[in-house]
Structure formats: C-alpha cells, structure tokens
C-alpha cells in the first residue's frame, strides 16, 4: 500500500502545482523573433485575437517587463503575440514568459528606473551675451535714397528730383552689453545722380553727380541678450565727396551753333560737412539688418561777380540728407 499511496500523493502534488501555475497565468515563450513571440495556447483560459500580455524576463532576482504584446494569430496548438509597445529596447527570446496585461505592471515584476539624460551644453551662439568685452568687425551694403532739398546745387531754380544710391562700408565696435562703441565708414559705390531736362522738348541737358564718403563714430545700444537682439544706433562724423556736372553732347552742340558758347564738364570739390545719423536694427548670429538716416548739409564755394564787378566767394549749400536699408556681417573676437 505504501508505494501506491506515494504515487497518488505525487500526482496530487503535480496537479496542485500545475493548477497554481495556471492560476498565476504565466505562459512560457517557446519561440521568438525580433517583434513577436510564440506560446502554447493556454488551456486554463480562453483568449482571443487582440488580447494583450506583458512579455516578462527574469533578470537575476528581478522580473522585468520588456514589452506589451497582443494576440494576432493561432496556428494549431500555438499562439503568436505581436509587440505593440516596447518597454525596454530588448527583443523577446525563448525562456521569457507572458502574463495577462493590466493597466499597471503586475506587482511581481519590476521595471528599471528611466535612464537619466543630461542636457547637452547650449551652443556658444545660444548663450547670453558674454559679460566681458568683445570686439566686432564687419562689412555691409544696402540700398539708399536721397532726400535732398534746395536748388543751390543746380545753380538754378527748378524742381529737384531724387536719386537712389548703393552704400558699402565697414564697422569696428568694442562693447560690453548693452553698449557698443566704435567707428564706421560708408561710401556711395553708386553715387547720387540727378538729370536736368529741357522743360519744352524734354531734351537731356546735363547730369549732376554727387559722391558721398562718410567717416564717423558709432554707438549701438542692444536691448536683448543672445544671438538675436534689437538695437538702436547713432553716429556723427564728416561727409566728403565731389560734385560733377556732365553736359549732354546734344546740348553742347546746340549752344555752339546758337550762341557760340562751348560748354565744359565741371567737377567741383565740395567742402567736408559735419553730420550725424540715427537708426535701428535687428541683430542675429553673425550679422544684422538696419535702417539708418543721415542728416547733413553739403556745401560748396563758388565765385560770383559782385556789384562792383569783382568776383566774390559765396558758399552755396543743399540739404543732403539721405537714408539707407543695410545688411551686414559681423565677426566677433
């Protein structure tokens, strides 16, 4: 009787152990690919396509959930689950097991703490303006326009036209936020040009050209730190440049034929004139855009006959104010 009782007891223990295992709902993975796992279709519960399971892996004394998977296929006695949400960057493997999915990971499993990533240091250009001094050197160009008034530059009373011009130049600045001070030079590569036409026939009589070279000091006040900033600017200096009058060939020929007068083109040296400018702009990494307006009176000396018949020197002037939209590039040291 004793061997029979012993065998019966072993069967009872195995049955109880298998019942306990089924109650826990753990199903061994018998095959796996990178994104799927295969188990023997459970006999202790009914499962359907779309049911979800955790894929669990034993790691030492811990059990770690590596993915969430759902049933997508039955084949004979086997059931395949497909990963729908990885938890760890690890594919399933034979020896893992599946447990029924719930909104929380089962208490018997643990997940590693999330990996902590340190934010990379901000690039140099994104950092606030350095507290120490910096030296800036740059070049610029743009499009400008005249806003002249007065007739003296033509030596005649007729309507004054306006002209565009092409400024090119450079800047050198030294500053500690928010103020930068330095020097600026600007030259009208394409100078101011004005045409005079005959009021009746529309014939071109002559063309006047006014050169402009500006040399001066510059102050810039920034309102934001970092690579992008708004700024105001102001400066003062001297304006140089000659005045040239070129007569048209047809006008020269007409005066010779009608009056016997032979005209010669004229080039007059203008006096250096003090002036100042104001403007505003937007700076960005490596450059800026700005608008600047120059206030200046250009002057020249002429010799005219006086009441006594002798030549007298007089100073004629014109409001030579002008503005420009400019774009520039800066290097910081």
What is the structure about, briefly put?
The chain is mostly beta strands. 10% of the residues lie in helices and 54% in strands.
Description:
By secondary structure, the chain is mainly β. The chain has 2 domains: 26-100, Thrombin, subunit H (Beta Barrel), CATH 2.40.10; 125-332, Porin (Beta Barrel), CATH 2.40.160. It has 2 helices and 19 strands. The strands form 3 sheets. It has an 8-stranded antiparallel barrel. Strands 1-2-5-4-3-6 form a 6-stranded antiparallel barrel. A hairpin with a 2-residue loop joins strand 4 and strand 5 (78-86). The longest helix is centred in the N-terminal third of the chain and has 23 residues, at 2-24.
At the third CATH level, what is the topology name of the largest domain?
Porin
Q: Output the helix-strand order.
A: HEEEEEEEEEEEEEEHEEEEE
- The 3D shape can be described as rod-shaped
Number of DSSP strand runs: 19
Largest sheet: 8 strands, antiparallel, barrel
Average pLDDT figure: 80
CATH architecture of the largest domain: Beta Barrel
Integer-rounded radius of gyration? 45 Å
End-to-end span in angstroms? 101 Å
Helix content: 10-25%
**Count of domains:** 2
Strand arrangement within the widest β-sheet reads: 7-8-9-12-13-16-17-19
Brief descriptors of the model:
2 domains, 19 strands, Thrombin, subunit H, 8-stranded antiparallel β-barrel, 6-stranded antiparallel barrel, mainly beta, disordered N terminus, rod-shaped, Porin, 333 residues
